[in-house]
Design goal:
The structure is a homodimer. By secondary structure, chain A is of the alpha/beta class. Chain A is built from twelve helices and 15 strands. The model of chain A has no long low-confidence stretch (mean pLDDT 96). At the A-B interface, strand 8, helix 8, strand 9, strand 10 and strand 11 of A face strand 8, helix 8, strand 9, strand 10 and strand 11 of B. Bound molecules: N-(aminocarbonyl)-beta-alanine (2 copies). The site of one N-(aminocarbonyl)-beta-alanine has 5 residues of chain B, from loops. Chains A, B: Keywords: Hydrolase. Chains A, B: GO terms for molecular function: hydrolase activity. Chains A, B: Belongs to the peptidase M20 family. Chains A, B: It holds the Pfam family M20_dimer.
Chain lengths: 406, 406
Amino acid sequence: TVDGDRLWRRLMALAEIGATPKGGCDRQALTELDRQGRELLTRWCEAQGLSVRFDAIGNLFARRTGADDSADPIVIGSHIDTQPTGGKFDGCFGTLAALEVIQTLNDSNIRTARPLELVAWTNEEGCRFSPCMMGSGVFTGKLTLADAHSRTDTKGVTAGEALEAIGYVGVDADCPRRFAGYLEAHIEQGPILEDEGKTIGVVTGALGLKWFDVTVTGMAAHSGSTPMHLRHNALLGATRIVETVECIAQAHQPDGRGTVGAFQVSPNSRNVIPGEVSLSVDFRHSEGRELAAMVAAFERGLEAIAAESGLEIGSRITADYPPQHFDTTCIDAVRRGATAQGYSHRDIVSGAGHDAVFVSDVAPAAMIFIPCEKGISHNEAEYATPEDVSAGANVLLRAALELAGV
Amino acid sequence: TVDGDRLWRRLMALAEIGATPKGGCDRQALTELDRQGRELLTRWCEAQGLSVRFDAIGNLFARRTGADDSADPIVIGSHIDTQPTGGKFDGCFGTLAALEVIQTLNDSNIRTARPLELVAWTNEEGCRFSPCMMGSGVFTGKLTLADAHSRTDTKGVTAGEALEAIGYVGVDADCPRRFAGYLEAHIEQGPILEDEGKTIGVVTGALGLKWFDVTVTGMAAHSGSTPMHLRHNALLGATRIVETVECIAQAHQPDGRGTVGAFQVSPNSRNVIPGEVSLSVDFRHSEGRELAAMVAAFERGLEAIAAESGLEIGSRITADYPPQHFDTTCIDAVRRGATAQGYSHRDIVSGAGHDAVFVSDVAPAAMIFIPCEKGISHNEAEYATPEDVSAGANVLLRAALELAGV
Ligand SMILES: NC(=O)NCCC(=O)O
Ligand SMILES: NC(=O)NCCC(=O)O
């Protein structure tokens, strides 16, 4: 089993880089702090005898040779970039759990048949540079390298420039292009495991997702001098959209989700009737057919609201990923890892997107979830217990050993 | 009758000071541009032989002597400060119509019994420094001078400092403290006159108003990994509040109004369930009893929404003015002014707050409305036709003459 204290100490040490006053972490992708985080990780990896390389989008790989070193590697890891008001665990847990697995093997002089590669994917969070999961997106061909490099932050700096500035433009050929398997440990970022008192989530796949940007246009006017019957209140249309989204999600339980997360009212003044509202809609479901039905109901709903209210409603799709089903062999390895060590567990579908979801398109993959307090993530208050962190790393150790062979 | 061309030219000339690219005006109270506007107005007034003074909050008075110069004056005017993206007419129309009335009397060598005073109230809009109607608020004792002077802009500059910087701290004793009557011409800022094809609104009073700031608190969480039944979505509570406000206003027609104008969602991110929503609520009604009933229904509604949703809902009152009924003599003078000149007109209740609404607490007062295109105001696109501008000034002339006596 892994050394849980050592893993916890590393988690806390990495969180020092970009530590926020409220106990969280702000270490966004491709910043100077990201460089410092990568350097610390590199030092730790090299101290374990791993050879560290990075590819053209900056994904960092650290290799532990195998008995058959020409075999495709088993890859384990996650990401170390954070949200602007992020926590200490999202991404870092999976990356440092991978390092802890490797150090445990070193300490025990265990040699695996296949090589092991630790990976830290570039820009999973997508905050400074969109889209999220940029590194795994380029790796799996969802996004071209040129497209990724051309993305700009709010100051007009491109991701390519930022990557060069921190010195992390590498060479693809130095890195593995084919994985025999990929395992990613992660905090759940949701409340299900905690709610049911389980230690390990055996992640069998991920919800498909469809995102929309919607704009409702009415006419801004004075709230005092405009009678009710002469108004074109964009906020009334927008609230009906919020309710339609909720209603559709409720009608597709237990696996459907529908959320309006971003919501901007213009001119947003106390005594002006809202003339325009922009909002985002996020639908998810584990089944492609159900997701399509939710989207169809939504589009009918928008038409009905526009027709009844006389408001102009425009919408466009901003993200569209089908449900993902992870590889059975990898899932079984995770489940056996949990069972063998007596951890309570349940199968779970990831509601959030992860690098593993992209990787699963090109290689056998699965994930290991541990509970996070109250399901809080993307928040400085994010927390997982030392016991659960250890448990997740132990399951990763067993599953990786099973896949890599001894 | 007035010289409509001259009045129009002055309106356009004043709008040059702070002109915006989109054809509007940004000349906020107590700025350098406000100083320039006041200076131009002062030059015009002095060219008409008026004596210009200002009081301790910077309200500007320009006096035309009367036959009985010790009698209390008839005061006519409005304000010349604008919204940040304001138009050319809001306030400036009433102020320059007053000047045009005085110049017309000068040109015709008409001497009134009572003195006439033109007034330009300080900071009616309340954008850089809250509250709105600051100058008339201090004049009528709604606000102490010390309180008004202590208000700060976003940079921490106080209104007192800004007033001193533009050189407009005057002496109360130099200005009239008692008015025999007050008349204010203004664009309607609403669609009623245009909708009914009327040229003049005989303003009989103003709606009472009650404003609330409401905060709905749930729990921010990941939109993908949080199942519907474990959510505490603040936006769902907020949308129910929007509907409750609408529903209450609809139930109090034709004079009730209810508006949610400001609406801020936090953290306002595409894949985060809203944890908090702050919103403003604006209720108005012409009858105090009805307004109280609307507010009572609203408070019951908030309780019901909190109880049903499990969300925490806090609210506080931020403004509270009773309905205002203008003086019958002043109203009649306005109505006769319109009738005598053959202008189509209707009685109207002002939905918006105005300096006249405050003045009416301490002196006989009324207002004259002219249509504004599509009811658009507080907007660079604000527009009134030259014909309506002339008509409004002509009604002001007749009504002021009637009140001041010849
Ligand atoms: N893990 C995670 O937060 N991914 C971001 C994309 C999503 O909303 O699922
Ligand atoms: N005239 C005007 O826009 N006043 C502002 C206060 C209000 O909302 O009525």
